[in-house]
């Protein structure tokens, strides 16, 4: 009986390892990027569009969304907001919100872009909590019976595919792999 169980366990281990080897190369990175594209790319692009006046000009709306305390302290005059740290935060936040999601979906500089998006989501969450002062129900709680809070529950789920991409990369079906292949051929 023990030999049969060991044989069955060995068969199971070999099957799981074979599937894992094949899927780890292309499927998981592609799936993480596809989930991000389907769920978060439209969200971040629509949000980024509210922060631009034209192609490269950052709108006053960006300051109100990102640096509300600084705008209030300046009496509502966005031009009076200090460049450091608020102005830089608005610039990096606005361009990051527009560029990083595209890099993640394309699989270009994926590890850096995914890590940047994780940081962006953390800063976004802190801004919602500390600046916009969302209520406790919106923040939610982990390990409770309600899986629908906007901040803790949803954003933790947003971070998970990005965490995979930051650790493992985009996989073989990505611009990262294409650039790596071209670079390797060029160096030979």
From TrEMBL:
Broad class of the protein's primary localization: membrane
Keyword check for Transmembrane: yes
Localization in the cell: Membrane
Annotated keywords: Membrane, Transmembrane, Transmembrane helix
Pfam families reported for this sequence: DoxX (PF07681)
Keyword Membrane: yes
Chain ranges passing through the membrane: 26-45, 78-95, 102-123, 156-179
Topology of this chain in the membrane: Multi-pass membrane protein
Record-given protein name: DoxX family protein
Organism: Rhizobium wuzhouense
Lineage: Bacteria, Pseudomonadati, Pseudomonadota, Alphaproteobacteria, Hyphomicrobiales
């Amino acid at each position: 009986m023990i030999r049969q169980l060991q044989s069955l366990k060995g068969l199971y281990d070999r099957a799981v390892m074979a599937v894992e080897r094949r899927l780890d190369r292309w499927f998981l990175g592609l799936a993480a990027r596809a989930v991000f594209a389907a769920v978060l790319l439209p969200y971040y692009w629509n949000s980024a569009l509210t922060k631009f006046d034209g192609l490269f000009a950052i709108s006053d709306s960006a300051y109100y969304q990102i640096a509300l305390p600084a705008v209030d302290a300046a009496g509502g005059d966005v031009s009076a907001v200090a460049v450091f740290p608020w102005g830089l935060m608005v610039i990096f936040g606005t361009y990051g919100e527009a560029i990083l999601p595209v890099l993640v979906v394309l699989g270009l500089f994926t590890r850096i872009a995914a890590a940047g998006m994780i940081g962006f989501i953390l800063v976004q969450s802190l801004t919602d909590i500390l600046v916009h002062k969302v209520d406790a129900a919106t923040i939610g709680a982990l390990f409770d019976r309600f899986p629908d809070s906007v901040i803790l529950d949803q954003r933790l789920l947003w971070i998970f595919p990005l965490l995979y991409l930051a650790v493992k990369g985009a996989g073989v079906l990505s611009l990262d792999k294409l650039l790596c292949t071209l670079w390797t051929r060029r160096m030979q």
